[in-house]
Amino acid sequence: MHTHDAALTDLILEHVRDRLETGSTPLHHPGQPDKLEHALAGLLGPEGQDPADVLRLYAEHLAPSSVACDSPRFLSFVPAAPTQAAVLFDMLVSCSSIQGVSWKLASGPIAAENQVLRLIADLAGMPAATGGCFVSGGSAGNLSALVTARDTARLERGLGDHDPVRIALSDQAHSSIHNTLRIIGAEPLVVPTTDHRLTGTALQAALATAPDTSNVIGVVATAGTTNAGIIDDLAGIARTARDFELWFHVDGAYGGAGLLAPTVRQRYLGIEHADSLVIDPHKWLFAPFDCAALLYRDPTLAKAAHTQHASYLDALQTGSHAEWNPADYAYHLTRRARGLPLWFSLAVNGTRAYTQAIESALSLAADTAALIRDTPHLELIRDPELSVVLFHRTGWTRTDYTAWSKRLLADQTGFVAPTGWEGRTVCRFAFLNPATSLDLVREILDTMV
Question: What is the pTM of this model?
């Protein structure tokens, strides 16, 4: 089982090469449960199968049953578009068996990951002491950051482990924030928004009118909402957080990559004051799944909240500040060095290429908005701030959108899932892939006539 098999290596690399060299990634379709069950039946047993047969099964049944998030025609949720450099290096990381838990076990990879974290911190304008780690996604990053916020506040305010705490957030906050609060036993203080954007003024008003704010310990702002790409009033929220001594967390999982785009950089003013920040490179920084950057203004607070203690872990704690243990800065222990593919891609391509790719998505969103605005049967809901475009097809109901979305995928024209906005079903484009063109957008819009 552990012997080297050159033929197996060549076989898999051939499939990888075919996937990478395909000019246009097909969208594929969701699989049918009964057909997948039939294809997989009897595969796992006491005796092994011929690798060529298993790979054929994957290529013919499993891969076509996975909708390709990196297709230029995938415009739902938040797409993916990992660079070739990142994908190839991810293979190297996977076959290197790197245990990225500690400096003692993976000092070289961790030093490279920290170089990327430093780059992101500098883009955000955060101080030199800023540090953190890479986690699996925005949900893991938000959870780890808000655990740190909760534990820090309890320590500083003399609260007990079971004393209730609240965290302020807008009615537009990502679903993972609500899930995090439920997990960590914190109550939400939901702040109503004007035009779906949380402001410092609204936060201050909510705190001023609440019967008791003594247990409000933090606030979550969003740098690019998932549904509409809206950036909160980060500067105003930062001021209010400072005035009320609140932990200031910024969820930039999708939109934080816009820090690299000069045309929108001003919209992020105030992000430099964040106590914690999450940005997902597997979204708009073109890294493969799964990869999220988690940063803390004062990493010692996160270390106090997350370091795990056991006799079998003592050897990992050397007491040296220069020896960075990623396991100390999130809820995880075992972890892959998931920041390395991004590091390699940044080193190979340079940050200018990233800026150009992000700007191309911003330009496509603006051009698409103009196209929709000039189409009689379409209604642009709002001008895009980032790369999400919301619009409505006049006369359509949820049923119409659902049927259209299914036809679109069945024809392999595109994958566009409808969303909700102010009580009605609407259409949403999420642009990220540099290979998505305005001609492709026109092709999709033409199906809505």
Answer: 0.95
